[in-house]
Amino acid sequence: MSAARTSAAIKYTALRLAIFVGCFVVVVGLVQIGALPKGLGDSNFVWVVLLALVLSAPLSLVLLRKQRDAMSAQIVTKVDSAKARLEANRKQEDGVTQ
Fold it and tell me: What is the domain extent for residue 47?
């Protein structure tokens, strides 16, 4: 696996995590100042995490389109390469057995 392939996936994952952490910090701040409800009973942490996930998903979808497309292109290239190798191996085996 080349460094370029790895870096696209790592970059996308790191940016996705950064967006989630940013949303989490904003939601915690809004809950602390009372702009958002604290949840029911002991569910405050779960509430904050779920709300951060709900907010970060569409943001990631819009903001990380370029990184997602780059990662997808690299995955497609790798899958096509693997398929070509398998086909070449199959043809070689067919030629040897006949």
Answer: 3-97
